[in-house]
Amino acid sequence: MRRLLSADPGARIIMLTVAEDLDGVALAVAAGARGYLHKDASRAELRATVTQALADPTWRLAPRRLRSTEMGAAPTLTAREIQVLEGMSHGRSNAEIGRELFLSEDTVKTHARRLFKKLGASDRAHAVALGFRWGLVR
């Protein structure tokens, strides 16, 4: 997917999955996928998703969320930590997130370290996966 997006940055990728693999989905979205559908999606759902993705270059499919009882309550993140996590979920680097939020790269790293600790995440991909699971990012 990264090679496809490097060759065509405007490509709009939608992943089809065979299972509810939210970690894999989070990695795909972090790498640039606009969203995902289960392989059993109806033709109407697939058609509507592709039509929307083609019509709106900024469109992203909101991920399905697990029920809160399956993972417990989501940790409380600050608004800035959520903005940093959202940037990570869109595949942005710390420097890109900083430019977008008018923060230094070091400040973004500080927010990232804090949100990793709150989420219990070992790295960016893990943080994004947990963010999707808890519905903290879309």
- Helices and strands, in order, run as HEHEHHHHHH
Within CATH, the superfamily of the largest domain carries the name Winged helix-like DNA-binding domain superfamily/Winged helix DNA-binding domain
In which range does the helix fraction lie? 55-70%
* Strand neighbour order, sheet with most strands: 1-2
- Indicate the proportion of strand residues: 5-15%
Q: Provide the gyration radius in Å.
A: 15 Å
**Unreliable parts:** 65-70
Largest sheet: 2 strands, parallel
CA-based shape: globular
Q: Based on the structure given, which CATH architecture of the largest domain is correct?
A: Orthogonal Bundle
Helical region count?
8
Distance between the termini: 20 Å
What's the total number of strands? 2
Mean pLDDT comes to 80
> For the record, what CATH class of the largest domain applies?
Mainly Alpha
What count of structural domains?
2
In CATH, the topology of the largest domain is named: Arc Repressor Mutant, subunit A
Note the topology.
Blueprint: H1 2-7, E1 14-17, H2 22-30, E2 35-38, H3 43-55, H4 68-71, H5 79-89, H6 94-101, H7 105-119, H8 124-134
Parallel strand pairs: 1-2
What does the model show?
The chain has 138 residues and is mainly alpha-helical. It has two domains: 63 residues, no CATH class; 66 residues, Orthogonal Bundle (Arc Repressor Mutant, subunit A), CATH 1.10.10. It is 56% helix and 6% strand. It is built from eight helices and two strands, in the order αβαβαααααα. It has a two-stranded parallel sheet. Helix 6 crosses helix 7. The longest helix has 15 residues. It is globular and about 45 Å long. Pfam families: GerE.
